[in-house]
Write a structure and sequence with these properties.
Blueprint (H helix, E strand, L loop, with lengths): L28 H4 L6 H9 L3 H5 L13 H25 L8 E10 L16 E10 L8 E2 L1 E6 L10 E6 L8 H13 L8 H6 L3 H10 L1 E2 L9 E2 L4 E4 L5 E9 L12 H4 L17 H12 L2 E11 L20 E12 L2 H6 L24 H24 L11
Antiparallel strand pairs: 1-2, 1-11, 2-4, 3-6, 4-5, 5-7, 7-9, 8-9, 9-10, 10-11
Length: about 400
């Protein structure tokens, strides 16, 4: 068990049950060039007219069930199962639990000198940090596949120690929103056999309309560059400024001059979004994204903008639904910092770089979850589960005499 001081949050109000069909949110139209998430149309085509209206009503646990001894036990059991699974996989193969092969660079991060957000003890105007950023595919090795892409940011040029770590993935929405839905995702993923073209487990998972929306929104199909994507933290975290008020925050990362995101899945791909294999006509190398970023770095520094979204927490208004990964907030995105990546990390440095959500500074944090249905359970679990994977890799290195975190034979 990892020792970490979670932030408590009392939620007084609970969302009322609703019989309204789920709506597909309109996400970042200014960066998507008219692209449309066709999850609803694809779902009705697959399961018949009216299927969406019937089934999407039950997509999320609304209202979120109240905590009980049995539900708290379920949360502990799932956390234990995930820690064991991640540690075993890491020990067996020497791999990360997710986001396997990647490419990383070091550089400098500067907090904006003209913040539009409340004064904060960590995000002080003009403050400069050395940093590391690692890009990777969330699953599968082939860069030309149709998968979620990641960006893991450390506010330090260190292998582990850092005042703040920020894992992010493509898409403003996700295929899972609490620990129960993540567990279903993991089970489906383990039952999949890509070598045989068997994506049946994913297809079954996509029967949940909310999962279908989130998957279509977050998958990027053979993008041109890791630098042509938009990355979101998704989970709602506490933000306490110097005024002491509690706000919720989310983060996103993108190039400041990006006008249209690459790799948004086509209508045809959306209709088989569970198929994560590359287009058979695509003959690019399996590591073309990694090569492209390294070539880009050789030409010039790669610059990103880190942005912040805030929402005031109002106990009399806000419910568990406010914390749902897939509940978009109307708040604007505010400039937080600028990143300048200047040099790639050597393979051994990249493989040993570990990002942990438990690295949280004063004024930020991670909310404690009460149950596995609780939307806070994803952040809660990330703090607990990922160190198990890292421990499994370290143990394997010691027992087998291989370089720690350096076994790249799976690539």
């Amino acid at each position: 068990m990892v020792s970490f001081a979670y932030e408590a949050l009392e939620i007084r109000e609970r969302a009322a049950p609703s019989d309204a069909p789920l709506e597909v949110p309109l996400v970042e139209p200014e960066l998507r060039g008219g692209w449309v998430n066709e999850a609803r149309r694809a779902y009705d085509e697959a399961f018949g007219p009216g299927a969406w209206d019937r089934e999407s009503v039950h997509a999320y646990p609304r209202p979120t069930p109240r905590a009980s001894a049995l539900r708290r036990l379920r949360l502990r059991a799932l956390l234990g199962s995930l820690r064991a699974a991640f540690a075993f996989k890491a020990f067996q193969h020497g791999r990360r639990g997710t986001h396997l092969p990647g490419v990383a660079a070091r550089g400098e991060l500067t907090i904006t000198t003209s913040p539009q957000f409340p004064a904060h003890p960590f995000f002080r105007p003009g403050r400069v940090f050395p940093c590391r950023l690692r890009h990777a595919n969330a699953s599968f090795i082939d860069d030309a596949g149709s998968v979620v892409r990641g960006a893991a940011l450390k506010f330090a040029d260190e292998r582990f120690e850092s005042p703040f770590d920020l894992p992010m993935n493509t898409g403003a929405l996700a295929a899972f929103w609490n620990l129960e839905s993540f567990w279903s995702f993991v089970v489906a993923r383990l039952r999949c056999d890509p070598a045989r073209g068997d994506w049946a487990a994913q297809r079954e998972m996509m029967r949940n309309p909310a999962a279908l929306i989130g998957t279509v929104d977050s998958v990027r199909d053979a993008p041109a560059s890791y630098a042509d994507l938009v990355y979101h933290s998704k989970i709602a975290q506490p933000f306490r400024g110097r005024d002491g008020a509690l706000r919720l925050c989310r983060f996103r990362l993108l190039r400041g001059d990006l006008t249209r995101e690459s790799g948004l899945p086509s209508p045809a791909r959306q209709r088989e979004i569970w198929n994560q294999a590359r287009d058979p006509d695509d003959d690019r190398p399996t590591d073309y994204l990694r090569r492209e970023l390294l070539a880009r770095l050789r030409r010039a520094p790669v610059e990103y903008q880190l942005q912040l979204q805030l929402r005031d927490w109002e106990p009399a208004r806000d419910t568990h639904e406010t914390l749902n990964n897939n509940a978009l907030w109307p708040s604007p995105w505010l400039e937080l910092a600028r990143l300048e990546l200047t040099a790639p990390l050597a393979d051994d440095e990249m493989e040993s770089t570990r990002v942990w959500l438990g690295h949280q500074p004063e004024g930020l944090g991670v909310f404690a979850a009460e149950t596995a249905d609780d939307y806070r359970s994803l952040g809660h679990a990330r703090v607990q589960v990922y160190p198990a994977s890292q421990s499994g890799r370290s143990l394997r290195a010691r027992l087998l005499g291989v370089p720690p975190f350096g076994d790249k034979r799976f690539e």
